[in-house]
Amino acid sequence: MHYINIHNKSGHDQEFEVHGWNSNKNITVKPHATAVLHAEDKSSGAIIALHEGHEGEQAEITKDGFGGNDFIDLSNIVGGGGNLTVQQVGEPGTRKGDPLFMQHLNEAWHKADAKLKESLKSCVHLDKSGKVVRIDAIKDHPDLDKLVRTFADGKTYIGVGAWGGSPGDKSDNNQSSAAHGDKDILVTYNDGDATPDNPPHLAHRPVEKLVSQTHTSDAHSGPGIILSNKSDKEEQYFFYDNYWNGNGTAGANFDHPLKSVKLGARATAFVSLSESFKGRVQRRTYLPATWVEFQTKASNDHAAHGDISLEQGCDGAATISATDGSKRSNGFTHDILKDAPAAAKVKKPDGSEALATTMGNWMSGPNKAAIEYERRTVGQDKAYITGGTGVPDVASRNNCLAVDFY
Predict the structure, then answer these.
(1) What pLDDT was estimated at residue 343?
(2) How many Å apart are CA 227 and CA 259, to the nearest integer?
């Protein structure tokens, strides 16, 4: 099972017509919020933005198609009134669509001569100031096709492509290229730039396929962590190596876990990691989640360093401790989910509850209720809540840290 995330970057409610999922029922996504739809493998459909009841730009999606790949494209064949992009989550190279389609359309319209404008007056809709706010189906208006191709050719479906014996337009046909395997999908809407927001790069830090079950052992030797499941049920933990590490910055990895470990209730095991590891471990793969961020060997003092972060959510308590005899430790052990206000909580794709992100990501913006609640119940001295400073770093000279999830 995978998911289609529909993120509305705009400042207003946006209605979408849904074909193929959600029982073919329309959805309305609140400003700066994300709707998540279940998408079975081998399923196909479309997410179509509506403008005053008229169909506009649409993301066309086939999950797990030929060769096990997703097929996605962005189409303006039936019209447009906003900006839309579609891609696989974490794969910007698969992105389709012109993120500034309406802005580019307005530029082209104002450059057009009077004769062309006259021929298009029935299908190009303007507001009182003369700004283009919506266009009708491009496929029904050859002159509109020509206008749109001056700025969006190769970025979105404009004509009907190869269909019914017609060879179609080469640029349109190329929109149907395969993506990279079978993954979650991100659809982003905006009146302005519909480029998905970059994931947070965790700039406050001083140092910073397929997932297989990794080998663990009771005794530790070398760099790694001693991982403990303090809960009363079996859990699986996933390790993510950062995409990149810079001077005081790190590129968070959201979609390519390095390895996973499954632990029974109240179980403990040593997880061996390379000296170059800089990243995190979390419960399962879904967000929101509590992150235990660490590196096994820093370049300056050659020790392991780590902290707890609630910036991408909280699905339970966690601690991180040194194992070199220094007794350094940080984090929290109490359950803060049970008494959390409803406004601070969201449901994860697996149905479980968690506290929402305090920093924002491609699915939603910062949740103010979660920020205030975590400041009261945990505090910035125990975990990163909104970046900044004040969270004591836990260092261990032997390159081994102990991580407990509750």
Answers:
(1) 95
(2) 13
Report the pLDDT value the prediction gives residue 167, as an integer from 0 to 100: 62
CA distance 28 to 13: 6
Strands 400-405 and 224-229: parallel
Q: How many Cβ atoms sit within 10 Å of the Cβ of residue 212?
A: 10
- CA nearest to 89, candidates 249, 240, 197: 197
Measure CA 124 to chain center.
Answer: 34
State whether residue 149 is helix, strand or coil: helix
Instruction: Determine phi and psi for 125, rounding to 5 degrees.
Output: -105, 130
Measured CA to CA, the distance from residue 364 to residue 7 in angstroms comes to 7
* CA separation, residue 67 to residues 63, 181, 360, 366, 399 (Å): 11, 8, 34, 38, 43
Task: Provide the pLDDT for residue 388.
Answer: 74
Residue type for 289, please?
Answer: A
| pLDDT, mean of each 10-residue run, the chain (406 residues) | 86 95 91 83 95 96 90 95 93 93 97 95 96 95 95 88 62 77 91 80 37 49 91 96 65 81 94 94 94 93 94 97 94 97 91 92 86 96 86 92 97
- Which strands, in side-by-side order, build the sheet including 34-39? 34-39, 2-8, 185-190, 83-88, 91-96
Predicted model pTM: 0.55
CA torsion sign for 300, 305, 308, 309 is positive
Contact 365, 358 (CB under 8 A): no
Residue 240 and residue 197: Cα distance in Å, rounded? 20
